[in-house]
């Protein structure tokens, strides 16, 4: 069992990284392998809606998105971490997620892969960034993993996060809950597979004329 961990911060050893480290250590203690991909320090451009991926099964831009796609496919879950910028997630990680989720829509099924957002902020804006990332999961039939508070830590530098004892506690509980959910889903998948997803209708409210 494996979880793909995305660090959306440009600071590889900053607050977001510290939070992710806490979740990863907990997952590993629960027997779940983790694979880390650093996105926030990469040059990631946004989707241009060219539909190249619909014909070729990969994004037209050959960068970290295409490299991460097979890691996502084989993972049982994904954690996306981001700092908070103007009450939202880092633009690079959002561009990465737009292209990762869209370009893989026709190549593998994300149903019952579990997802979690992890947010760091100095003071505020974290819950709206948290909401932004969770929307990628809810449109993909992916259960969202919860904890005992919103999945966030507070601090300006990584050393500040060490003082956020509740935040680190939240990360550990998140890791345990994710491990439990992955194991439970995998046990059910062995006997019944994943729930069927209807995709016959794609309503755009045209009048047909």
CATH superfamily, by name, is Flavodoxin domain
Q: How many domain units?
A: 1
Give the DSSP E fraction (strand runs of 2 or more residues).
15-25%
Round the Cα radius of gyration to an integer and report it: 17 Å
Low-pLDDT residue spans? none
Distance between the termini: 50 Å
CATH C-level class: Alpha Beta
State the shape.
globular
**What name does the CATH topology carry?**
Rossmann fold
Helix content: 40-55%
Topology:
Layout: E1 2-7, H1 15-29, E2 33-38, H2 52-56, H3 64-74, E3 77-85, E4 88-89, H4 91-103, E5 114-121, H5 126-138, E6 152-154, H6 158-161, H7 165-192
Features:
six-stranded mixed β-sheet, Rossmann fold, single chain, alpha/beta, 6 strands, 209 residues
Give an account of the 3D structure.
The chain is of the alpha/beta class and 209 residues long. It has a single domain, classed as 3-Layer(aba) Sandwich (Rossmann fold), CATH 3.40.50.360. The protein has 7 helices and 6 strands, in the order E-H-E-H-H-E-E-H-E-H-E-H-H. The protein has helices spanning 15-29, 52-56, 64-74, 91-103, 126-138, 158-161, 165-192; strands at residues 2-7, 33-38, 77-85, 88-89, 114-121, 152-154. Strands 1, 2, 3, 4, 5 and 6 form a 6-stranded mixed beta sheet that branches. Helix 1 (15-29) crosses helix 7 (165-192). The model has no long low-confidence stretch (mean pLDDT 96).
